[in-house]
Amino acid sequence: MVALLVTAVFIGAPLWLVLVTSFKPQGEAQRPNLDLPKVWQPIQNYLQVLSEGRILQGLLNSLLVVLPSTILILVLGAMAAWIFARRSGKAASGAYYFVIAGMLLPPAVVTLVLELRWLGLANSQLGLIATYTSMYLPLAVFLMTGFIRLLPIELEEAARIDGANPTRIFFWIILPLLRPVIATATIMVVLFSWSDVFYASFVLGGGERATLPLNLLQVASAQLYQNNWHLVFAYIVLMSLPMVVLFLVAQRQIIAGVTSGAVK
């Protein structure tokens, strides 16, 4: 009961504030509160955001960055996790702990920007894809390694006896069994990268390639939304909708992946 109350206060209340404010006219939204609107104008607010906030361009830019990053993280993470889960010895253990150390050590911004410049990837979507992949790959490896260790190795041994090579074993046996933990890793990686504005601002620098959160920052900085909290919160609602849909679709797989991967 206490946990539900805390959740309602610290999570439910901000969500409600964002939602109801996005339905209010500018006058009522000057001082955001939890009250229902006296005058409802959700259609006008959301249409104004779509027409003036460049949200469709930001959505496309976010998809062009988040989707390739997530695919790379899942494929590379699954391959690495399979090796770490099945190999023993100091070399394999050392490599595993070296990789997951990336979960605790965020990249330094100055070093990151300089490295991207040396590689010719600065101010490009490819550079942001490389950044997200390097940042969140350790998380995927950590989740998937614990899950693979729970899978019976006899399945792989039987496939080898039947003449299957390692590539076939991975794509036809291991990868399908990783579906729950892949769903978990997907929602976590997408959530982190979708809402990121810090690294996107340093790597992309804004402009026409700005992702959704970075685009919101630019629009707000240009004073288009100054004191227009109803428009800001309407933008946030639209920006969050893809994450809500993704979570609703994959919630069962997410829970299964978390509980299974947490055993080891």
**Average pLDDT:** 86
User: So, the CATH homologous superfamily of the largest domain?
Assistant: MetI-like
Helix content: over 70%
Compute the number of structural domains: 2
Series of H and E elements: HHHHHHHHHHHHH
Largest sheet: none
Report the end-to-end length measured between terminal Cα atoms: 29 Å
| Highest-level CATH class of the largest domain | Mainly Alpha
CATH topology of the largest domain: MetI-like fold
The general outline is: globular
The number of helical elements comes to: 13
Percentage beta strand:
under 5%
Number of strands: 0
Secondary structure class reads mainly alpha
Q: Based on the structure given, which CATH architecture of the largest domain is correct?
A: Orthogonal Bundle
Q: Radius of gyration over alpha carbons?
A: 22 Å
Low-confidence stretches: none
Structural write-up:
It is a single chain. The protein is mainly alpha-helical. The protein folds into two domains: 1-40, no CATH class; 53-261, MetI-like (MetI-like fold). It has 13 helices and no strands. It has helices at residues 2-21, 26-29, 42-52, 55-86, 90-100, 109-119, 125-148, 154-161, 166-177, 179-194, 198-203, 212-221, 229-261. Helix 4 runs antiparallel to helix 12 and helix 8 packs antiparallel against helix 9. The mean pLDDT is 86.
